[in-house]
Amino acid sequence: MTPALVFKEGPLAGRRVEVVAELVIGRVDAGLTIDDEEVSRRHAVVRPEDGEIEIEDLGSRNGTYVNGVRIEAVTRLAGGDSVKLGTSVLQVETGRAAATVAAAVPAAPAAPPPPPAPPAPAAPAAGRSAPAAAFGTYAAPTVGKRSRGIASRQLGPQLVSFAVVAATAIALVIYFADH
Fold first, then answer.
1. What SS3 class is residue 166?
2. Do 143 and 128 touch, CB atoms closer than 8 A?
3. What is the value of pTM for the model shown?
4. Alpha helix locations (H) across the chain?
């Protein structure tokens, strides 16, 4: 039996997609496009593996959930498992029964060590969440359910730029007032 994903909820409800090769799921420029603002442009990738399916989140803003648990690594899926991407809920069809909780796929023994982790970000101000990644990336903060654009996550640099412009304007006013 070819493993497949069956859309139970969301824009593609009722659609069945067989997974015969690696398939990127996302909102734009993906092998399987879902018209859903809660799905990232390149949200997750699924690939067949020994008659089953593996799924990996591609750093999506809202995450990928398997059986209600947000995944952080490549995760093996079994028949009956539930996958949530944005507002879409998919059910996995394979020859193997579903697990109660999603389990991460064990790492290959000969894999090279990962690069060193970047330094931890400073603690966020009270009432705000810390950004998910370093400055300049597109990882969204978790502030309620409202998604925010990249500009709103770069308030510090905006304030510094505004201060430099204001200081320059004041210096010019003082200079021309004296001359």
1. helix
2. yes
3. 0.54
4. 155-178
Structure tokens at 75: 């995760």
- Residue 18 makes CB contacts below 8 A (sequence gap 6+) with 2, 3, 4
- Would you say how long the chain is, in residues? 179
Find out whether 78 and 97 touch, Cβ atoms under 8 Å: yes
Which residues partner with 76 through β-bridges? 54, 103
Q: Which residues contact 173 (CB under 8 A, 6 or more apart)?
A: none
Question: Helix or strand or coil: residue 177?
Answer: helix
Distance spanning both ends of the chain, measured CA to CA: 85
DSSP state of 61: S
Q: Which tens digits make up the pLDDT trace of 62-93?
A: 999 999 999 999 999 988 999 999 999 999 99
Helix (H) / strand (E) element for 129: namely none
Tokens of 39: 């799905």
